[in-house]
Write a structure and sequence with these properties.
Length: 392
C-alpha cells in the first residue's frame, strides 16, 4: 500500500459518480451481456433466486431473463459459489477459480466439519466414512442421470432421505433431510452445480448436475485477485468495507491490499483506498434512477454506507439479519424502497424529494421493469417491514 497524499481526497459526490458509471446503472453505461454485468460488480448475490435476474436486467441494455438462463445453464459462463461471508454468489467462470480459492474453499471445509458434527449428534450411524460413501453414490447416480433433483437422487441413494433434528428444544426446531445438506456441501466443494429450475426462472426447485473441477490457485494470489477486482469496482472504500464484503480476517485484508499496491486516499468518513492508478476523478454520468432488488451487489457493497444511505432509513430497508430489501436509487443515493404487488404493479415509497426529473426517471424504470417481468411475480425471500406495507 502506498502512503496517502494530502491532495488525494475523494468526495462522496465522486464516489456516487463512480457507482453510476462502474456499476452500469446510468442508462448510457448499461451492458450488452450478463457476463459484463457480473464482472462490473464482481459478483451477483444469488441467495434469493430472483436477485441475480433482477440485478442483471437492471444493468442490461436489453433486459431478458433468458440471457441469464443461457449464461447459467447453456454457456456455463456464470458459476454459483458459496463464498464471501458464507453467502451464495454468482461469478463469471473466469473469476470462479480465484473466488473459490480465496473465499469459497475455506467455507467448504467449515461446512463439511459442521455437517459431520450434526450427523454424528442428530442422525443415526453417520460419521466421515459413511458421508464419503454416500457422496460417491450421489455422484455416481448423477453421472448416470445427467441431472436430478435431491428428491430424485434419494430414489437411487436412500440415505439422502434420512433426517436430522435441527435446533432441538427450540420453538423453531425442525427436521432437515440429509440430502438437502449433502447436496449443498457438494456444491460448496464445486463438485455439483444447479441446473435450470423445473418451474419459473425465480423458482427454488432445481435439479443438480456434475460440475467440472475448478483449477487450483494459491490462496494468497486468489485473495489479491478478489481484492483488486473489488476495489476497481467499489473503490474508493475502506479497509473495513473490504473485510466485511469478503469475510476475511484483518490480516488477510491488509495483506491483500498490500499485494495489489492499493493507494491510500482520504474519504469523508476517514482513510480509504483505491486501486493503483485509479486516483483521478471520473466524469459525471447523466442523471439516473434505478430500482434494485433485495441483496443487490451495489446496495450490499460496503460496510460503511452513510455516503449513499441515510442511517435513519436503515430500519425500514433491512430485515432483522442485515439483508437489504428492494431499493430506489436516484443519482447514487438510496431514496426509497419498492416492491411488486400481487397484480404485477410496481410501487415505491420515497424518503426524499427527487423532483420532477427524478419521478419521471423512476416511472420510466418501473415501466421498463414491468415490461420484462411480464406475468412473473417476484417473492422476496427476506421481506422487510416496509415491503410488506407496500404490498397492502
Amino acid at each position: 500500500m502506498t502512503d496517502a497524499h494530502p491532495s488525494r481526497r475523494i468526495s462522496d459526490e465522486q464516489r456516487r459518480a463512480r457507482v453510476g458509471r462502474r456499476h452500469l446503472l446510468a442508462p448510457s453505461t448499461r451492458a450488452a451481456t450478463v457476463e459484463e454485468v457480473t464482472d462490473a460488480v464482481v459478483a451477483l448475490h444469488a441467495t434469493d433466486p430472483a436477485t441475480v435476474y433482477l440485478s442483471a436486467c437492471a444493468r442490461l441494455r436489453e433486459p431478458r431473463p433468458e440471457a441469464v438462463d443461457r449464461a447459467f445453464y447453456e454457456d456455463l459462463s456464470l458459476v454459483r459459489l458459496l463464498c464471501m461471508r458464507r453467502t451464495m454468489f454468482a461469478v463469471t467462470a473466469g473469476l470462479a477459480p480465484a473466488v473459490y480459492a480465496g473465499a469459497g474453499r475455506a467455507i467448504a471445509v467449515r461446512e463439511r466439519a459442521t455437517l459431520v458434527k450434526h450427523l454424528r449428534e442428530r442422525a443415526t450411524g453417520w460419521d466421515e466414512g459413511r458421508l464419503a460413501t454416500v457422496e460417491k453414490e450421489v455422484l455416481a447416480a448423477l453421472a448416470i442421470r445427467g441431472e436430478a433433483t435431491t428428491s430424485e437422487l434419494s430414489q437411487d441413494v436412500p440415505a439422502l432421505r434420512e433426517t436430522m433434528l435441527m435446533s432441538p428444544g427450540k420453538p423453531y426446531e425442525a427436521k432437515q433431510s440429509v440430502g438437502s445438506r449433502l447436496l449443498r456441501l457438494l456444491a460448496a466443494d464445486g463438485r455439483v452445480r444447479r441446473c435450470r429450475p423445473r418451474a419459473t426462472w425465480n423458482s427454488s426447485l432445481f435439479p443438480w448436475a456434475p460440475a467440472a473441477a475448478l483449477p487450483e490457485l494459491p490462496v494468497r494470489e486468489a485473495k489479491a485477485e478478489i481484492a483488486g477486482r473489488w476495489l476497481r469496482s467499489f473503490g474508493p472504500a475502506t479497509e473495513a468495507d473490504l473485510k466485511w464484503w469478503t469475510g476475511w480476517t484483518v490480516t488477510d485484508t491488509r495483506r491483500a491490499l498490500a499485494d495489489i499496491r492499493a493507494v491510500a486516499v482520504e474519504l469523508a468518513e476517514g482513510p480509504g483506498f483505491v486501486a493503483e492508478g485509479d486516483e483521478e476523478p471520473v466524469a459525471e454520468c447523466e442523471p439516473w434512477a434505478a430500482l434494485l432488488p433485495s441483496l443487490d451487489p451495489t446496495a450490499m457493497g460496503w460496510r460503511m454506507r452513510d455516503w449513499y444511505l441515510d442511517p435513519e432509513q436503515v430500519p425500514a430497508l433491512f430485515d432483522g439479519t442485515g439483508n437489504i430489501g428492494p431499493t430506489v436509487w436516484w443519482n447514487g443515493r438510496i431514496v426509497g424502497a419498492w416492491t411488486q404487488r400481487g397484480d404485477g404493479e410496481v410501487v415505491w415509497r420515497l424518503f426524499a424529494d427527487v423532483g420532477r426529473e427524478g419521478r419521471t426517471a423512476l416511472e420510466t424504470e418501473a415501466a421498463r421493469l414491468s415490461g420484462w417481468l411480464g406475468a412473473t411475480r417476484i417473492t422476496t425471500r427476506f421481506p422487510t417491514k416496509l415491503e410488506r406495507e407496500l404490498t397492502r
